[in-house]
Structure formats: C-alpha cells, structure tokens
Amino acid sequence: MRRHIRARWLEMLILLPAVALLGQTQSPVTAIQCGKFFDGRTLALQENVTVLIRGNRISAVGKSVPIPADAKVIDLRQATVMPGLIDCHTHMFLQGIDYDQLLLKKSLQYRAIWATVSARKTLLAGFTTIRDLETEGAWYGDVALRDAINDGLVIGPRMQCATRALSVTGGYSPYGYSPDLTIPKGAQIADGVDGVRKAVREQLANGADLIKIYVDHRRRGMTNPDMLTAWPTFSLDEVRAIVEEAAKVEAKVAAHVYASATAQTAIQAGVASLEHGIYLDDVTFKMMAEKNVYWVPTLMAYLQFMDDPKVSPERRRLMTGTTERHRETFQRALKLPVKIAFGTDLDGQELGWMVKYGMAPLVALRSATSVAAELMGWQDRVGTLEADKLADVVAVKGDPTQDISEMTRVVFVMKDGVVYKDAFHGPSDHHDP
Ligand SMILES: [Zn+2]
Question: Fewer CB within 10 Å of terminal CB in the chain, N or C?
C-alpha cells in the first residue's frame, strides 16, 4: 500500500509540469467579430472590431487583428458588443417579498437557494461582475455564494461581498416588535469605536471584500409622509475607525446615505462610495469630487414602487416626493465633476432611467463598465475590452445609443472566456454540473 502511494506521487510529480505546459500552449483561442463596439471607456461606438481571446483573457482588440486558423469564431457582426456589465449595488439575498416576512419566515437555507437563482439571472442579464452590498440578515451567505460561483458549483457573476453591513442600535429594520422578543436585524449592530472595530474585524475574518455601513437610516415613527427621511447613526469617530480597520486589508467602505450632513461625515472619514444619496447638495458633491468618492445613485431602488399595484396610496405619496428629489439631485450631479457608478439595488431598468434623466447612453454604459470597475478596485481585470483584461463580453442586438432599452435584452454573455448565453448561435459552452 505504502509503495503504491509513493508510486502515485512520483507519477504526479512527473506529470504535473507536463500538464502545466500543455495548458499553456493549448489555451483555446476565440475571435469575436463585432458589428458595433463599445470598449467601456471611449464615448463613441466603433465598427468592425475583432476581440481575440486566449483562454480566459483578451489577447488583442482592433480592426485589423489577424484571426488565427485554429480560432473559434463568434460572429456578432449583427450586434453591439461591450464589456461585461458591472452592478455596484446588488443584494442577491434580498428577494422581492415583504422584508419582515423574508427575515422572520424564510430559513437561511431557503434564502441561499433563492440567491443562487438570483445570481444566475443576474449573469444571464449581462452582469458579469457585482458588488453585493449586504445580505439583509442572511449572515455570510454572500461569501458562500461567491465561493460556490468561483468553484463552478453554480453560475453567477464574479462577486465582491459586503457580508452583514453595519448600523447602530435602533438603526436598522425590522422595527416595531415587542421589546420582550429578540428579533433578528437586517444588519449587524455595533456601537462605539471599540464595537465597530470588532465588528469590521469579524466581517473581514469571515470573508468580506468590503464593508457596507449605514451612516443614516430611517427609524420607526420618524417618517415624513411626503419624503423618505433618515437620521444620523455613526459618529465621525466611529466611521473613521471603520475605515481604518478596513484599510488595513485594503478593503473599501461603502456608505448608505440620504442626507448631505451625514454624507459629509462619511466623506471626511474616508469612505469610497455613497449609496443612494437622494438629497445630496452641491457642497457634498464638490467634496466627493475632491476626495474621489463615487456616487452610486440607485434610482430604481425608489422608482420601483411607482408602478407596483400592491403599493398603498400613502407609500406612493412618499415615493413620489422622494423620487422627484432624487431626479433633481441626479440631474444636478450630471453637471458636476462627481463620478457616478452604476448600481441598481435590484434588477431592472436603471440604465433606462439614467438616460431618461439626461445622462448620455454611453456615459451610462461607462458607469456600468470602466467607472464601476474603478470603484471596485478591479480596473486591472474588468470594465474595458482591451488586451490582458478578463474575457467578460456581452452583446445586444440593436444600438443602445439609439434605444437604451436594448440593454434589458442582452443576447450574448461571456464571463472569464466561457459563453453562458448566445441567442444568435444556440446552446452555450456552459453546461450546469
Ligand atoms: Zn441596497
């Protein structure tokens, strides 16, 4: 038996370098012929570009790139080709039912299964990378999902995970239950500089790629009937401690915020992005531009309630006031140098609304490609179609500069060199295990 094991080891030692060598020389080559082409950065569509892919990386992009004889050719000359889309604000574990029901009646196991379905839908809708901004009470489920995708168990986008997110005592839903009961909260509650340091260390130890915090939050019984209002949570010292702990492992901090005053606390403390920012003023946008803080407006997070028949008249009134202010803030920001990164808070029509509110289509697409990649710190691997980037490619049939709704009908999805969807040419490379 012993001898047998030793013999197997020897065999493996001899074989391993040979396999590695074979792997290098035999990476399959794919050539994508593009009709219209957006590189993720340049604000003009190009034509007749070829994208050459070796294995999981792009090896060349251009109009006169020679196609090797052994290359698999994917003909997308009838389509507009662009980098895989990036959503900087998702919740794979927030599953479109009443929030309290989700937290109190669905098991973590059920929610995890549901999240795998959301991840699959997200990828097939053209999002090859996401920044998932907390599990809403599902603990470290996002880390498990990220790892299962990376291991090839289920299909989905490549993920950065914020895990549990942080707020203060009284600063997170669900609200309104008897104080005699212990009700699970949608975020991790931490107070004081020592408390938040420990919580950040805990989240990072359990696999968080970034930290999400609520610097303000709605509280029960404090709601303006015409407008969503939020109240400050963490002190400047607490946010500083959070940013400092995260920075030790080069993790960024994303801050949920509505109001300018709390946004300024977050900016001063050194967060990387502000999420939502419904009421941000020009002074705040100026501070953001100076400190390279990105804005992820998530228009759909509020607009989604406008044509939902289940929404009560009171809530509709609240959302009408809120979405009007959000629109005004967005249109003001378009004239300022602040960087806007794409985030949906759910799947949907975000790009359409950005364009409807006056953002040029290619600027909107840039916010969902190269700008989003910069915010995530992944600009060296995703967000543009150029040599050495990972082969994340999507395509739509029509021209999104003419009709942005084309982006809701993605017909081709490649992630990491693997085709997951190809409406032009039938079955994809990928087969579910
Ligand atoms: Zn969110």
Answer: N
